[in-house]
Amino acid sequence: MASGLATAHHNACSSAGDGHLSLRRMRIDTYHENVAYMHRDCEVYRTEGFKALSKVEVRTNGRSIMATLNVVDNGEFLTCNELGLSNAAFEQLGVPAGQLVTISQADPPQSIQALHRKLAGERLEMRDFQGIISDIAAHRYSKIEMTAFVVATHRDELDREEVYYLTQAMIEAGRRLDWKEHVVVDKHCIGGIPGNRTSMLVVPIVAAYGMVFPKTSSRAITSPSGTADTMEVLAKVELSFEQMTRIVREHHGCLTWGGTAQLSPADDVLISVERPLSLDSPAQMVASILSKKVSAGSTHLVLDIPIGPTAKVRSMPEAQRLRRLFEYVAGRLKLSLDIVITDGRQPIGNGIGPLLEARDVMRVLENDPTAPMDLRQKSLRLAGRLIEFSPDVRGGDGYAIARDILDSGRALAKMKDIIRAQGAHPFDPNQLSLGALTIDVIADRAGVVCGIDNLQLAHIARFAGAPKVPSAGVNLFKKLGDEVQAGDVLYRVHANYPSDLQFARQACDKANGYTLGQASDVPHAFVEF
Amino acid sequence: MASGLATAHHNACSSAGDGHLSLRRMRIDTYHENVAYMHRDCEVYRTEGFKALSKVEVRTNGRSIMATLNVVDNGEFLTCNELGLSNAAFEQLGVPAGQLVTISQADPPQSIQALHRKLAGERLEMRDFQGIISDIAAHRYSKIEMTAFVVATHRDELDREEVYYLTQAMIEAGRRLDWKEHVVVDKHCIGGIPGNRTSMLVVPIVAAYGMVFPKTSSRAITSPSGTADTMEVLAKVELSFEQMTRIVREHHGCLTWGGTAQLSPADDVLISVERPLSLDSPAQMVASILSKKVSAGSTHLVLDIPIGPTAKVRSMPEAQRLRRLFEYVAGRLKLSLDIVITDGRQPIGNGIGPLLEARDVMRVLENDPTAPMDLRQKSLRLAGRLIEFSPDVRGGDGYAIARDILDSGRALAKMKDIIRAQGAHPFDPNQLSLGALTIDVIADRAGVVCGIDNLQLAHIARFAGAPKVPSAGVNLFKKLGDEVQAGDVLYRVHANYPSDLQFARQACDKANGYTLGQASDVPHAFVEF
Predict the structure, then answer these.
(1) Which contiguous run of DSSP H or E holds residue B215?
(2) How far is the C-alpha of A479 from the C-alpha of B243, rounded, in Å?
(3) Helix, strand, or coil here: A24?
């Protein structure tokens, strides 16, 4: 059969020649990278002198995309009159299979000259960043070119005005929401602390107070759960922009996934090279976070920078440098910004993983006596700072207002409204179906918990299956300063699959993430809260 | 039919489960990048939590390779019991199709920690470079990671001792030839000058003098012809190492392609990211060139650094900085190095493109009165410097010895021996079948040629089809300092295909690469030759 097919294709080939190829969806998932597939015997391939990994431009009816070329020697995949596209590329081109397309060597994106100037150590202007970022947002950069940009701008390569240019260019490259409100609030944490689901408490508190709070969150990238993953335990989070707008109009707040909004699209593209390199420089962090917030229409932002020995930011001088950069760029963007530097010495809350974190959140909202106090306190303080953005609230009064809203049950009622509006999922915090395979990690001696490694606990929860398996994760029984006896359970790992459990066990055996010592060994946190 | 196939594959799926997959050659050419293809319904895919673009390790019988994962939704390409590999990956794994393989998430290469330290601006040690380079040579780095390494080490990021570490690590990552001779000579040009086929004259002259000169060359990457492309007009250049050794033993010299020798393999991998970025920093140039030469067993090297307004190196201070870096690293490697800074203001010889360059070379060897004098002079001077590596030759006497060898016909006889030994191709310099489609580029006024743009002439020759079409290229009729009248032909472009001719014409129309002015406008070259 194979050879029969090959012959048929060969006959088909000889009749081609006008340079047009028939579009084919290859149904190959290459993630964010556009790949075009062409048969080696394709006449266009031979005459145009393409090579594998050439960058090509695919055009039809005034639409065009850039892609990397892969060359196919197999007539069963593709005839020589066809041009195949990977999933992402096919969707971007946005025309039906079978349509005729043309293909040509892609000119290098115009902004490559500016990239070369940055590689040579020069300072770039606003228009340079606009060119680079609009080319990146339009998928005109290869992974190699994007990596070069990210590395060439990562450490102290950008001055603070260049960081502003980069941020502004990222905003301009996407759509920008306008809520037609004077004050649209948001909060954001720079990340790195497991648990820490404050947004799911701050949104209902502040929305119950009456401020407009259209919160969109990301899913986990390298962490055991993102706010969108945990919220998804309780409600649908993938909503259309129109659905989200309607919910915010009615309830003042929402807790949805922000992935589809085309806000700062260059950021989503760049992350495909930043993530594998674990690059997260101050300049890129500032540009990424502030471009997303301004694009989403926020006017007032509280930003949480946790510091601790295993947090992203490890010293106060580092936190202060980062704060000044955020404040400078926010000022240029006319975004009101209040930065709080918080205690990042350990996870916030008891649970790590979607289901466990959702339980922590609901227990705080329900004023359950078993609710984690650290999560409650931090959320109240963050909510208080947001409430103080109101012109009629005195500095210092926000916390008490937030506490009244939480203690009175109004925050819980607001959360239930939001869950219902987004589409509730069944959930009972007292009847949790956690992963049935468990490991109890035990104290090997008596002492005081004087260190919990955020990174290691996050790794263990991910090995256990979080966030892909929502019922997997880590349940902490002891926190910093707690006294333990030999044999006490420090934490329990939950998994659903034996292989996940085994990976998690290997990670625990290597380093369980807890340090036991004396009360005086607990590191101090010189922060506001 | 398609749905029948899909069903069959679906049935096949349910019987899997031991984690083994059957290897399939996808026959997709992804150039240097290893790609593995897996069906989305594959049980291993689902249980292991892979994602598109995950780095995976494919193992069988103690062999293993790293690859980037693409996810296939199309049962016609791949069943869910199969693992597909791109051409390069399949060859690297080196086992037959159908063999059972296992696949797992790839651990990050061990040396990634060192990469992160360099990204953070730290100085690396020898062992760090050894780790990085051996991982790169083993294809354990993704394109993103390699780009990060190349950009993080490109400008002044490496001090000269680090450049030595990098070079030494690149040597250790491959095989190293040992010719069992006290003196093994080589020459190299850093490139950028069209024509300039001095190696094809220097090798027969110096080999005729009796020195061991196992010259391997590259094919063109971005230029209109490499020495291997031009030599291939005259003889076979893709020889096994054993064939090459035999020829060098018998004739003292050879002129072969160096691509298959596994000398400094990391260099071949890194070029796949350096080339698309046009990155060619001093550190990378020194490490690349010297690692190849030392791996090839050279003990004595003459290195040609041309300078000129459109050469790679554009000023004498820049050339001197580069010279000092080459000399420092060569010293650490115990390689005897003689650097000559030469006239790079214009192409060397009259022809650009394989056939035209081969004619220039043969005319010089045949002492033909129409031979290009600049090519003859430069080759004699380079050969003279190599001959002066002999302990019994006085400094300054090399040129005259080289000239005697050329004028007496001994160089031509040696070249004929080498051509015959490698496998002669039919060639008559006076009966050239040049590309029949031509463009004559004409002087639009009288004047003196005071500028020839190396880069533009190279582009035009490539657009015309060189080196893929050996008979394509550019034939220069006028060189720097020549007087021309309006209507004189400056150069002739040769192409074989109408589309190539059209691209070349567009390039000529945009900029023909020649500047006409007065005799006093010709730039001076303050170089040895």
Answers:
(1) strand B213-217
(2) 71
(3) strand
A348 phi/psi in degrees, rounded to 5: -105, 130
pLDDT digits (tens, 9 = 90+) for B431-448: 989 999 999 999 999 999
- For helices B143-152 and B112-119, what crossing angle results, to 10°? 40
Number of residues written out for chain A: 529
A529 touches chain B (CB under 8 A): no
Report the complex ipTM.
0.80
How far apart, in Å, are the Cα atoms of B187 and each of B195, B197, B235, B290? Answer: 16, 12, 20, 11
Q: How far is CA A263 from CA A202, A247, B134, B351, B377, in A?
A: 23, 19, 41, 54, 63
What pLDDT tens digit does each residue of chain A (529 aa) get? 333 333 334 434 543 456 789 999 999 988 777 899 999 888 777 766 676 667 889 999 889 998 888 999 888 889 989 999 999 899 989 999 999 999 888 878 899 999 999 998 899 999 999 999 999 998 889 889 999 999 999 877 899 999 999 999 999 999 999 999 999 999 999 989 999 999 999 999 999 999 999 999 988 878 999 999 999 999 999 999 899 999 999 999 999 998 766 788 898 889 888 888 888 889 999 999 999 999 999 999 999 999 999 999 999 999 999 999 999 999 999 999 999 999 999 999 999 999 999 999 999 999 999 999 999 999 999 999 999 999 999 999 999 999 999 999 999 999 999 999 999 999 998 899 999 999 999 999 999 999 999 999 999 999 999 999 999 999 999 999 999 999 999 999 999 999 889 989 999 999 999 999 999 999 988 787 8
Whole-angstrom distance, CA of residue A33 vs CA of residue A269: 9
Listed residue (B255, B225, B218, B196) closest to B382, CA to CA: B196
Q: Is residue B76 exposed (0-12), middle (13-18) or buried (19+ Cβ within 10 Å)?
A: middle
Cβ atoms of B457 and B493 closer than 8 Å: no
- H/E stretch holding A305: strand A300-307
Report how far Cα B185 is from the mean position of its chain's Cα atoms.
19
**Strands annotated E in A63-164:** 63-72, 82-85, 100-105
DSSP class per residue in A205-251: HHHHHT-BEEEEEPPPSSSS--HHHHHHHHB-----HHHHHHHHHHH
Residue A74: its chain B contacts at CB < 8 A?
26-28
Three-class secondary structure of residue A124 per DSSP: coil
The number of CA neighbours under 13 Å toward the Cβ of B457 is: 33
What does the pLDDT look like over B156-202, one tens digit per residue? 789 999 999 999 999 999 999 999 999 999 999 998 999 999 999 99
Helix (H) or strand (E) holding A60: strand A55-60
Q: Distance (Å) from the C-alpha of residue B450 to the closest C-alpha of chain A?
A: 28
* Closest-CA residue to A205 (of A223, A187, A189): A187
Name every chain B residue with its beta carbon within 8 A of the beta carbon of A53: 30-33, 272, 276
Average per-residue pLDDT for chain A: 91
Alpha carbon distance A320, A322 (integer Å): 5
Question: Choosing among B70, B86, B111, B122, which should be mutated to test the A contact, i.e. which has the most A CBs within 10 A?
Answer: B70
* Cβ within 8 Å of residue A326, ≥6 positions away: A286, A289, A290, A303, A337, A339
- Cβ distance A119 to B28 less than 8 Å, yes or no, reads no
The reply to whether residue B147 touches residue A152, judged by beta carbons under 8 angstroms, is no
Asked if A11 and A80 touch (Cβ cutoff 8 Å), the reply is no
Backbone phi and psi for residue B491, each to the nearest 5 degrees, phi listed first? -160, 165
Within B380-521, strands assigned E span 437-442, 447-452, 473-476, 483-484, 489-495, 514-517
Residue A70 touches chain B, beta carbons under 8 Å: yes
Beta strands B100-105 and B28-29, pairing class = unpaired
